[in-house]
Design a protein that fits this description.
Layout lengths: L1 H7 L6 E3 L8 H6 L5 E3 L5 H7 L21 E8 L10 H4 L4 E2 L2 H13 L4 E6 L14 H9 L6 E5 L8 H9 L6 E3 L7 H6 L6 H14 L4 E3 L11
Parallel strand pairs: 1-2, 3-5, 5-6, 7-8
Antiparallel strand pairs: 3-4
Helix pairs in contact: 6-7
Amino acid sequence: ALRASKQRKPQQVISLMGCMVGPRTEDLEKRFPHVDVFMRPQMFTPLLDLTQSIPLGDGCLPAELDLKATGPTAFVNVVHGCDNFCTFCIVPYRRGRERSRPVDEILREVEGLVAQGVRDVTLLGQKVDSYGKDLGGVDLADLLTAVNGVDGLDRIRFLTSYPLGVTDKLVEAVANLPKVCEHINIPVQSGDDAMLERMRRGYTVAEYEERVEYIRKRMPHASLATDIIVGCPSET
């Protein structure tokens, strides 16, 4: 779809980013010769270098990317990567192992967003409740508590959770912190223990149900969301 646009406007900058891009890009370059730059997750330097070295016309990326809030809501990445290595997921291989951002760095970003009019932030992670495991002495509940103290912020959300990562402490934080929405995205992926084992999910149906029961006990009116994989290899 973008090839024709690039032909009409050669000055356009097209970048392919995310998990599809691995350490080697030769095959992608052959398939998509109209793409200017390929970037793996959290790799921004190639695009910045490119946009600062070519003349830019109307409709192109600015030479200096000054990311600004565009409305009352915003997403804030707090932990990158994943250590789970589920059989169906490419994330650990492309986004790497779990790496948490420091609390003070996240707070500065949230405060900057609030200063631009943001009132609702969603804290993001492939497995968001792993936040802080690599920092020592801090976890997602502590981060929610810190962000809850940002003046001018009204609502805090987070996703996506790993079932066994939804600890009692995290549930208590969601229940007690006034700005944290009582909503948890907690993917189950399958309702069959054998299938969960083949997926390398690391929990059973009973363990998942126990976590849901605890959430319901502490927050009867909380909303829950889940993910379900249908037709995973070997599933009948």
